[in-house]
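Still learning. Any example?
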Amino acid sequence: MSESKIEDQASEQTLTFADLGLSPKVLSAVTDAGYTVPTPIQAGAIPHALLGKDVLGIAQTGTGKTAAFVLPMITRLEKGRARARMPRTLILEPTRELAAQVEENFIKYGKNHKLNIALLIGGVSFDEQEKKLERGADVLIATPGRLLDHRERGKLLLNAVDILVIDEADRMLDMGFIPDIERICEMIPFTRQTLFFSATMPPEITKLTEKFLQAPVRVEVSKAASTATTVTQRLVKSKSKDWDKRATLRDLIRAEEGELKNAIIFCNRKTAVSELFRSLVKHEFDAGALHGDMDQRARMAMLAGFRDGKLKLLVASDVAARGLDIPDVSHVFNFDVPIHAEDYVHRIGRTGRAGRSGKAFTLATKADGKYVDAIEKLIGQSIEWHDGDLSTIVHDDSADEAPRRGAKGARGRGGRKSDAEKRPRRGRKSDEAPAVAAAVDAPVEDVAQAPAVAIEERTERRDAIRVGNAERQRATYGSDQRNTRNQDRDRRHRRDDLGEAPIGFGDDIPAFMKVVAKV
C-alpha cells in the first residue's frame, strides 16, 4: 500500500483554520466555538479529506481527531441532498457515548447548515431511529451492531454512502467488531472516501487498512501508543485483597484532595465498578458509576453530571477510556492495572488534555508485575513509584493460604485466631472511612469541645453528599430494583386473581374421565 506520511512539525502550528480550505459557513461555526488554530492532526488531515483522499490518522487521545473528520465532512455535504433510507455519509463508533459525542460535534459545527443527522445506537427505540432514516440522513452515526440490525430489517441501504469514517479502530478491535466492520465495508460502494482513525496500530488494524483504504495519506502526529507529556504518572503499591486496594485508593484520594478537581477511576470488570462505587458511597465520597450494563439514559445522565461538575469521582469500565470529550479531568486512578497495555494509554489520556496538566495513579499488586512491564515497554519509559515499589510491601494477605480444618496452626478449641480470621471482613468498622469511624468512637466530651461551626459545616457537606449519592444509586440501580418489585407484585396479584388452588382437575375434568367404568 503506497502512502505519503506527514509528520508532526512545528510549522503546522502556524496554520489557522482559514488556511485549511473549509467553507465560510464552517469557519464561522468554528470561530463561534472559540477555535482559531488547528491541532496537528486537524492541520494534517483536513486538507486531504477536503480533496476526497483516503486518510489514515494516527494520534493519541485528546488531540482533536473528531473535528479532523467532522469539519471537512460538513464542507463537502453542502452540495447534494439525502434520500430516504440512503445516507450520504457513515461514521462508525465503538460505543454509544462516542457516537452521541460525534452527533454533538455535528450539531455544534453544522449550525449554519440544515443537515439531517441520524444516530443509530443501542438502548434507543428502533421506531424513532427508523423515522429519521425515512426522512433521509445526510450524516449517519452508528455503532456496528445496531447498524447491521437496521440493515437486516430492510430499513437501511448503504449504496449511496460517499464518505465512510471508522473511528477508534483499535477499540473496535478490542471489542470484537472487526468482522462487523468488514461486512459493512463490503456493503458500501468501492468508490467511497474512507477516513480511518486510531490511536494505536496493531497488526490486525494494519491489515484492515491495507484491505479497505486506497493509497491513503498517513497523518501521524505522535508515536503510536505514546502518552502525553502533560500527565504525571505514578505507580502505587497495594496488597492484593480488594479491601486493601479500596483502602489504598481512599488514602490516595484524600492525599490528593488539594489538587483533585475531579477524577475517573478505572476498573477492569463491570462487577468491580459496582463494588467500588458502593464502597465509595458508603464512605461518603461524591461518586458515580459508568459501565456497559447500565441503561443508556442513566449512562448519559451520569456522564453529563460528571462533565458539568456535579460529580467529583466517576468509577468506570473501559467504556469511558476512549475519546470521550471531558477536557478538564485533573486525575485518573487505575484501580486495576489494565490487562492490555494499550488501554493504559487511553485511560490516562482522559487527563492532561488540551495542554492542561494532569496526574495518573495506578494501583499495582505483586500479581500485576507482568502487566506493568508490558505498559512500560509499550510507552517506552519507566513509571516512577509513588511511595516505594512492590518489594517494600511487608506482608500481603493474598500470600496466606486459608487454614484447613485440622491443619497445624488452625484455630482449635481454646486456640489462637489465625491470620485469616483476624483480617477485617467487609462491613467491619476497620473498613469504614476514618472520619466516620472517628466520629462514632469519639468520647462525648471531645465532640462537645469541637467548634460548633465546623461540626455544622461537616454535617451539611455530609448530608449533601448522601443526598447526591442516593440519587445516583437510584439512577444506576433503582430501575432494576423497581422492576423486580413490580414483577413480584404482579405475580402476587395474579395468584390472588386465580383464587384458591383447585384439587386435581377442579371443574375442568376431561370428558374421557367421565365415562362410567364397566364392572
Q: What stands out?
A: The longest strand covers residues 231-237.
